[in-house]
Amino acid sequence: MESRKAKKHGSTSQLLREDFDAGPTNLDCIEPGLWLGNLTAAMDLELLEERKINYILTVDSCPLPRVILSVPSIHNMFIQVTDIPCEDLLSHFEEAYKFIANGQENGVVLVHCYFGISRSATIVIAYFMKKYQISFDEAFERVKKQRRFVGPNKGFEAQLRLYERMGCTINKSNAQFRMFRLKVAADKVRKVKILPQDCLDVVRPDPALITVKPDPLVYRCCRCRRIVASASNLLPHVAREKPTWKNEDWPPVVNNEDKPLCMMTYFIEPLSWMKSVLQSVEGKIYCPKCNSKIGSFSWIMGCQCPCGAKVSPAFYLVPSKVEWSNFVQNVQVTV
User: Does residue 21 surpass a pLDDT of 70?
Assistant: First the structure.
């Protein structure tokens, strides 16, 4: 690891911000054209020039100072995240990969966060996983060999392992990824009491709308027979077990005799016809056609099924209020 002590305020190449205390400049060459370091390194103009660094990927709570961002020869990318396990870095892996790959083709890249330990290391590990088609464990060891104190927090490590299970790509139809995004959305709703715009992807399309490939298995309101959910919207659970995207064996399969699915409560994804889930922390779910109460939701508290399984966030339909239908033509209905 290369390091140098921070220069005094009078130095023209050392740019400080008021909350800056990331320690002396330190960075390590992970492979030719790719460096991993701390914030101090990214703010050291002399160092950047020495190493011929012309691409900087910042993974931090705030961007670099304008003086650095305005350097014509340096290309910048900013991913705004804090170093806490519930932050979503996974959704940024693909754009980060493209930036780093392009940077290595056209120069030298520095990936940094505040200390260069967790957030930036996570991005570089994900980059190695995709570039070399290797496992998380192998990518972690390769990066750690070059920078000994790298250590993604537990949440980022779980995201890297999910990335591996998805084949080092972002598969938005993957059940575990969709549940992961739901948890991210719930954490944000907890803070701002409303579903943020950047989490609207967790709200699935209305299954009652006409579609090219309709799901033949749907739930209908018992009273008016309006389609309210499809089988693909179901979030299955096993009695007394809390479903989580971190488990490799989630979602459970229908024909597992050792762990049969519980159907005492129908937990589903939030759907676009559920207008209240966009603006409220919790509430009742009413049929959009006849206004019958068919379920409830809670972004924060979740719900405990009679079987003992705790699901959070929870959007559920009461089995006695809805019925199954398996006629494909019945899906071809407009709201």
Answer: no
CA distance linking residue 258 with residue 281, whole number of Å:
35
Active site residue 113: yes
Q: Is-contact 59 111, C-beta < 8 A?
A: yes
* Catalytic residue of the set 29, 62, 86, 113: 113
High-pLDDT (> 90) share of the chain, %: 80
314 vs 282: CA distance, rounded Å: 9
Three-class DSSP category at 201: helix
Mean pLDDT (whole number) for 178-203: 95
Q: What number is the average pLDDT over the span 59-64?
A: 96
Closest CA to 75 of 61, 86, 64: 64
Domain locations in the chain?
A: 2-171, 195-331
> Hey, what are 67's tokens?
């003086």
Q: What are phi and psi of 149, to 5 degrees?
A: -105, 25
CB neighbour class for 91 (10 Å; exposed up to 12, middle 13-18, buried from 19): middle
Tell me what the mean pLDDT of segment 173-202 comes to: 95
The third-level CATH classification (topology) of the domain covering 2-171 is: Protein-Tyrosine Phosphatase; Chain A (3.90.190)
Nearest to residue 303, comparing CAs of 251, 243, 233, 218?
243
Instruction: State the pLDDT at residue 152.
Output: 98
